[in-house]
Structures are given as C-alpha cells and as structure tokens.
Amino acid sequence: MNAAARCNLLALVLAAAPAFGLPLAEYPEARQFIDTMAARHGLDRDTLTQALEQARIDAGILKAIQRPAEGLPWHRYRKIFLTEERIAGGVEFWRRHRRLLDQVAQKYGVPPEVVVAILGVETFYGTRTGGFRVLDALATLGFSYPRRAPFFRRELEQFFLLTREERLPPTEPVGSYAGAMGWPQFMPSSYRRYAADFDGDGKRDIWTNPADVAASVANYFVEHGWRGGQPVALPLPAEAAKFGDETLEAKYPLAELEAKGLKLPQQSIPKDLRGNVVVLDGESGPEAWLGLPNFYVITRYNRSRLYAMAVHQLSQAIRQRMEGAQ
C-alpha cells in the first residue's frame, strides 16, 4: 500500500472511530463487548465500563500498524537486527544472566542464544518495550481498525481476564502499539497460555523479572514444538531457490526433497526430519535456506520468515561472539 492509500485508509478509520461521537464505552460494539464479557466470564459490567471509559482511540496506533517492518525485503530487514549494537547487547545480556539462561536451557531445551535473540529482536533486551497503554492499543484496534478488529477484540477479552487473574489495574500495563507486552512482547492470549513463574514467587512478571521472561520465551517455544539439539536452518546454494514455496511449515520429508533434486547441506541432519526451502531477497539475488522444524517454531512467535531468519542469524552471531571471547 502506498503512502497516499495509507493516509486515505487512516482518514476513513478515524472517521468511524468511537472518539468521533460517543464515548468509547457507549459505542455499540463496545456495549456488545461488555455484554459478552459479563455473560461469558462473569466480569462486572461497571468495572468494564469504567475501564473502557478510560481507554482512548489513538491515531498513532492506527498509523503505526499500517507500516510493519515485515513488508521490507530481506536484505533491508536484516540490517535492522543484525547490527553491532544488537550483537554486543546480546553478548552483554547473556553474560549478565548466564546462570539463569543455563537453568532455563536445562529445563526447556531451548539454547540461551535463541532466548537472547528473541529478546534482542523484540525489545532490545527489555529496553524498548513500547510506550502505549495496552488498554488503549487493544481498544483502538479492536473498535477502530475493521481489517483486524475481531482479532484485537479477542485479545482485549484476554487482557481483561489476565488483569483479573494477575490483579493488575487495566490501565497499568504498557506495551507496543499492537498490545504486545513486556520484554518478550506477548499478546494477552500468549501471556495467559505461556508465561511462566520461573522463580516461584507467585507472579508471572514479563516486565521486570528476567527469570520469568526467559522461561516464558522458552516455554512458548516448547509448547509450539521446539526440538532440543536440532538445527534451525541451513544455507543452500542459490539455485535451490527453485524448490521454494510460500509455506512456513517444514512439511516435506528431506528424502523427498532430495529425490526431487535438492542437494542437502553436508552438515549431519537427522534423516527423519522434515523441512522446506526458504527463499529470501538478498542484496545480490535470491538466498535459499533449508528451513527445519525449529525454524517453523520461531515463525509461530511471529508469522514471518524474515522474522525467524533474523532471530536465527542474530542468535548465531551472539553465540559466535560469546565463544570467541572465551
């Protein structure tokens, strides 16, 4: 979508926003939302109404969601995350939390560098977690962004449930323009399903507690099928790009790919693995990679092959730097 089209869409969205006329809590979709929450979950109507009365429609959120970085070609996207500053920051974070990351790796089977890379890509190791109230982000996108309103209303539902469970005021949590929270940028549904209380203090704190943060990321991966001790992705010759398709899932038996003429990497790979050929836009032409099940798991965190490859390559750069410094 070009800049003019984005501006036109934003104008149309704002014209339909609750802030244009009624207070948000009185907007028809919001009233229906309150009714559903009260009937389905037993939440108090007055409490929900008061919370929504404090929410505001934010034009900055609507503008931000129309320009995701995943729309960039790989060679430009990569430069955002594979930087000296981010690699050095990952090494420093790993050193500072080495014992904790080793404990998390022992329990979950997810290597420290992968957990660290996720935090590096998501929030620069917990230093850039977003400045929007989660309530505002989810209300704005749930009631004023028709393209994905059902998804964000479901996340708003999950948000109110988690604030009840965790005894948090709905106006307190802060996160991204899309409502993602804490160092690992969990959406409310992910928080409720995967956040972990690693230190046993009775709280799942993904905003300030490194133990809960690292364990939550690792638990997310395990719950989505992470295979400990197996590679994520391996480079292929550029000509292997002809075997690529749009799938994210590693769904083809390696023997089948080999029978079709794909020359597999020399690195030892378990023969029972499945994979797919991931094709990315490199600076000098297509890049081809053998995506394995763990690569697909990373795309479950963010459904983008660009994202998964950035996490993978950042994790490898951080590990290499750590090993070289020892």
Describe the structure.
This protein is of the alpha+beta class. The termini are far apart. It is globular and about 65 Å long. The longest helix is centred in the last third of the chain and has 21 residues, at 305-325. It has 15 helices and six strands.
Descriptors:
4-stranded antiparallel beta sheet, Lytic_transglycosylase_MltB, MltB-like, single chain, alpha+beta, signal, 53% helix, two-stranded antiparallel sheet, 8% strand, 326 residues, peptidoglycan lytic transglycosylase activity
| Number of helical elements | 15
Oligomer: single chain
Give the overall form: globular
Q: Count every beta strand, where a strand is a DSSP E run of 2 or more residues.
A: 6
Strand coverage percent? 5-15%
Q: Into which percent range does the helicity of residues fall?
A: 40-55%
Brief synopsis:
With 326 residues, the chain is of the alpha+beta class.
Secondary-structure map:
Blueprint: H1 3-15, H2 28-41, H3 45-54, H4 59-64, H5 74-81, H6 84-96, H7 98-108, H8 112-123, E1 132-133, H9 134-144, H10 149-166, E2 174-175, H11 188-194, H12 210-223, E3 233-236, E4 252-253, H13 254-259, E5 274-282, E6 285-291, H14 293-301, H15 305-325
Antiparallel strand pairs: 1-2, 3-6, 4-5, 5-6
